[in-house]
Amino acid sequence: MTVITEETYKYSAEFLISKLPQEFQQVDLGVICGSGLGGLVDTIDQSTKVEFLYKDIPGFVASTVVGHAGKLVFGHLGEFRTPTVFMVGRFHCYEGHTMLQCTLPVRVMALMGIKSLIVTNACGGLKSEHKVGDLMIINDHLSLPGMVGNNALIGANIEFFGPRFPAVSDAYTYALRKLAFKAAFEVGISPNDIREGVYAMVTGPSFETRVEARYLATIGADVVGMSTVPEVVVARHAGIKVLGISLITNDVVRARGKDAKLEVMRELGLTDKIDTEEDTEKTFANHAEVLETSAMRSNDMQRMVIRYADLLAATLI
Ligand SMILES: O=P(O)(O)O[C@@H]1C[C@H](O)[C@@H](CO)O1
Ligand code: HPA
After folding, report:
1. DSSP string for 277-311
2. By C-alpha distance, which of 47, 130, 119, 111 is closest to 90?
3. What number is the average pLDDT over the span 300-308?
4. Does residue 125 contact residue 223 with C-beta atoms inside 8 Å?
5. How many CB atoms lie within 10 A of CB 65?
6. How many CA atoms lie within 13 A of 80 on its CB side?
């Protein structure tokens, strides 16, 4: 396995800087586009944008998931033309990449000067009040892998980026969350369609079982996904402020599912012995539905991110 050291990050950043025009050698904002959400780069000034395929950047691994283009794009975002670097497609642990490989681009962005990062993702909603297509501003996360030994910062600490024991109890900056809601309302997103809550990370790639989904909801999660948290932890370690936006692309199964015993009792006419009625509702998560919902809502999310970038550029946060 390739060893990733401080030099690896610096080498990647120097490679990019050597190929970029002056205006993008230092960038202010980073954006990580989740499943099906890469269309944001079609909204930037196409005449100045510069693209690199991940496979051509030293240190980067390949992106293998449908809906993740696999390119790093530099461009001007919004009316204030904020110099921005976009990851169009991210790396996930379930692709077989380590946490260090998945988060390498965040440290490269840190070396290129970003002070602020927007992470977006597609996720499953765990709460009955969620609707498919709702947006959620992340206000906290629950890292299932991180809690059981797969934290993105495991290994020798690179002091150059940050301290051995960084605090992440306030990983999602309050002022940025406020700015994101302001941006959302200003572009016409209804308060009924955007929420604030907790993102739980699981590694995937299998979706949750029904009881896993109930468990996640019980321990405090509002939505569940397979990414984001490692990037956020590494960004916070490097002192980068983070805004997280989730798009609820599917309703995660919370029902108990069909009860085989009851069904057979019904079939044999033993109905007088049935004393409970089980919930038989069930749906199955699938990646096609995730991409379909992303496509449906990506326009709103793009307008919100553009407005947010302008509000951010106009403030001192
Ligand atoms: O990159 P994100 O977190 O948006 O991708 C989600 C999680 C899985 O990779 C995939 C499941 O459909 O979409
Ligand atoms: O239901 C889900 N579970 C986990 N990850 C996801 N990413 C999109 N939807 C889901």
Report:
1. ----------HHHHHHHHHHHHHHHHHHHHHHHHH
2. 119
3. 93
4. yes
5. 18
6. 16
More confident call, 271 vs 129: 129
Is ipTM strictly over 0.95?
yes
Domains contained in the chain, CATH given: 25-203+223-253+286-313 (3.40.50.1580)
Nearest to 88 by CA among 101, 100, 74: 74
Plot region of 241 (φ>0 → left; ψ -120 to 50 → alpha; else → beta): beta
Q: Which residues pair with 93 in a beta bridge?
A: none
CA distance 57 to 154: 24
Model pLDDT for residues 198-213, shown as the tens digit of each residue? 999 999 999 998 889 9
Kindly report the pTM of this predicted structure: 0.91
pLDDT tens digits, residue range 142-193? 999 998 989 999 999 999 999 999 999 999 999 999 999 999 999 999 999 9
**Residue 150 annotated as lining a ligand binding site:** no
Angle, alpha carbons 145-29-105 (nearest 5°): 45
Catalytic residues: 35, 68, 92, 94-95, 122, 226-227, 250, 287
Cβ of residue 249 lying under 6 Å from some atom of ligand 2: yes
> Is 18 a known ligand-binding residue?
no
